[in-house]
Amino acid sequence: MTQSSRAQAHDQQHGDRSDDVTGRRARNGRNGRTDSGERLAEAYGNPQPSVGSIAAHRPYAVAGPAASPGLEPDLDADLGPYPYGHDVYDDDGYGHDGYGHDGYGSRTAREPGRGDGGDDAQGDGPLPQGRFLDRERSWLAFNERVLELAEDPATPLLERANFLAIFASNLDEFFMVRVAGLKRRIATGVATRSASGLQPREVLELIWTRSRELMARHAACYQQDVAPALAEEGIHLIRWNELTDKEQGRLFTLFRQQIFPVLTPLAVDPAHPFPYISGLSLNLAVVVRNPVSGHDHFARVKVPPILSRFLEASPQRYVPLEDVIAAHLEELFPGMEVLAHHMFRVTRNEDLEVEEDDAENLLQALEKELMRRRFGPPVRLEVEETIDPYVLDLLVRELKISDAEVYPLPGPLDLTALFRIAALDRPELKYPKFVAGTHRDLAEVESASAPDIFAALRERDVLLHHPYDSFSTSVQAFLEQAAADPDVLAIKQTLYRTSGDSPIVDALIDAAESGKQVLVLVEIKARFDEQANIKWARKLEEAGCHVVYGLVGLKTHCKLSLVVRQEGDTLRRYSHVGTGNYHPKTARLYEDLGLLTADPQVGADLSDLFNRLSGYSRRETYRRLLVAPRSLRDGLVARIAKEVAHHDAGRPASIRIKVNSMVDETIIDALYRAARAGVPVDVWVRGICALRPGVPGLSENIRVRSVLGRFLEHSRVFAFGNGGEPEVWLGSADMMHRNLDRRIETLVRVTDPAHRASLSRLLEAGMSDTTASWHLGPDGGWTRHATDGDGQPLRNVQEMLIDARRRRRGSATP
């Protein structure tokens, strides 16, 4: 059934709400009142009209999704003879920074050949149309891979609960940013056909359909698999009616003492307009009847987010907070008859728009925009599948949301609450504990003293691989030692995201208070961390740090630290260039790489770049760095083209890339051209990939793999065969428009042969057919490869690295 057919069937089954609303408005005359109260009264057995109660809320006509013919477009029609089926699914994270505005609407103008199907640089003819996969579909496929980890019985049980929570959190952010941005562009008329060839409305329909399927799978995994398995292990996630009388009594006491005082029922009547429903809040829609007048009324009760979502009724028996509230609604509406209650949850547009050119103070402008974020338009309405259709109709009209944006699900809603369950102290139901050790180049394993970072770096560069190498005894110790060292004169640091109790921030404050020159470039526009970063920016300023916010129009996403130290008659610069944030907590969960070095060229490059970010500089070339938005894309394209020249000359040639996302058309086209010329191309991508591998005549020399597991694969590595003299880079940049055009990003060239060999082994392990991973096909479908031909589990690259660290704690190279 096509999406158009499904929409028609939906209308036949449920009726066209927008027409119904318009008809009721006409019938009810100039006061604009609807007959919702009458219909509710009929539904709950009261034929009397509800004058001045639930019927008095202001109606809003809801325009349903416009009919769009051919909503299952032939994405591959322009690929000529290549016969592909239709695939029906990002990030930057199992969480944060993965949703830029790439894909729709105006973008940075591209030169000829940049994603436009221009002539092939090697003279093999133009690249075919339809060569790019849709990025939103690819993001949904990424989140489906997360869901598959939750569905996998081989995943430890509490980790499965954790992956269910991650899936839900990811999808929340996807709707808040990507879907909201797409809707905004459609509404304003600036959305254009995406690089995949889909019209914006087609993409939106695709998202609605695919996300509905995945959300249903997600709920079924919890209801039918994970929750029963938890019960078998003595962890019971139950509903109110499953509690014993003793447990209910205990929770009634808890309700009276700790829950009731923070609840605020909000009525809807002529004196009380429909309340504002905050984004991601969990709510009860309550229908009550006045026994005197016989009128039915609607009210909303918000489930307080400051209270624990799962309440422990007795040891290892947990009940949702909303169940406890629902069981005691009579306490909130004394003298009224509670007819029904239904759970619902709204997702809103929570992306930020700050016009930096017009903002005298970016900090103040962002704070104002953060306040406006709370009132963004709705983009999704989740409801319990048992909701009364009349209550649903009221919510749809008041929230001005279309039927396609309503998601009926079995309760409980909002399974991000499973993060708390996953955190229970049941180590036998989790991945085996792993504690990172200090890198051997920084300190011997048996040494109990703090490592002398500067002495170690004077001997050699140190390549760090987190979380396998400890962040606290490497990067954090580097900055803490710099803050305490009287010979250190200056520290320059970028901060994109950091933890709430950040030792990094504390070290910078200590350095400033001891008289050192401290420059901190705080990216206060880091999505969903804006408020925390504003707080740290002010705290750093108050301590005497020089705090700057980067360049107008560009986010500063690079991960850089520079320490200037007096050593005799000379100044020596120590540097750190990484792929991950200076965040001690996520450093235990995110896989990242970092280079600690005293190399003068890297130090000079970082000095030049910090001067550009804090002052006035037009430097665009560096010694060992590639820097976006000026040189990074062109630098990579030039190196990809160079591999073609090496291949044509019979020299060793290869391209291997590890990134979070591969979307940029210029980079993808360069990879297509290299593959056409015969250069083998391997892409290890965690999230979105718009590149089609395995297309005859275009990309049969390209392989794409994805690895997901206990750690979030987050590092970015670029390795080139370079005619037998390997060239390897690492850094912060993903292959997306936002990273290459609208962010300050850096890659650093790795020069130590042992480090290059180590990174090469890492890439080989991730791409090996003997490693468990997902393989991307030319139709955009991902296939999981977890067992070999004999049914035996394939190698887990993350467990391999953990085992290697355990065997040789603190080795010289990752």
Question: Topology, pairings included?
Answer:
Blueprint: H1 3-14, H2 17-28, H3 36-43, H4 135-151, H5 157-188, H6 200-232, E1 236-237, H7 245-259, E2 265-268, E3 282-289, E4 296-302, E5 310-314, E6 317-320, H8 321-327, H9 329-332, E7 337-348, H10 362-373, E8 378-384, H11 389-399, E9 406-409, H12 418-422, H13 453-459, E10 462-466, H14 475-484, E11 488-495, H15 503-513, E12 517-522, H16 530-542, E13 546-548, E14 555-556, E15 559-567, E16 570-578, E17 590-597, H17 600-614, E18 625-628, H18 632-648, E19 655-659, H19 665-676, E20 681-685, E21 702-706, E22 712-713, E23 716-720, E24 727-731, H20 737-741, E25 743-750, H21 753-767, E26 773-776, E27 782-785, H22 797-807
Parallel strand pairs: 1-6, 8-9, 11-12, 12-13, 14-25, 17-22, 19-20, 20-21
Antiparallel strand pairs: 2-4, 3-4, 3-7, 5-6, 7-8, 10-17, 11-15, 15-16, 16-17, 18-25, 19-23, 21-26, 23-24, 24-25, 26-27
Helix pairs in contact: 3-11, 4-5, 4-6, 5-6, 14-15, 18-19
Domain Polyphosphate kinase middle: 248-420
Binding site for Mg(2+): 497, 527
Active site: 557
Question: What does this molecule look like?
Answer:
It is a single chain. By secondary structure, this protein is of the alpha/beta class. The strands form four sheets. Strands 14, 18, 19, 20, 21, 23, 24, 25, 26 and 27 form a ten-stranded mixed beta sheet that branches. The radius of gyration is 28 Å and the shape is globular.
Number of helices: 22
Helix content: 25-40%
Q: Give the overall shape, derived from the CA principal axes.
A: globular
Residue stretches low in confidence (pLDDT < 50, at least 5 long) are: 1-40, 46-123, 352-360, 810-814
**Average pLDDT for all residues:** 83
Rg = 28 Å
The number of strands is 27
The CA-CA distance between the termini, in Å, is: 51 Å
Query: How much beta, percentage-wise?
Result: 15-25%
> What about the largest sheet?
10 strands, mixed
Give the helix/strand class.
alpha/beta
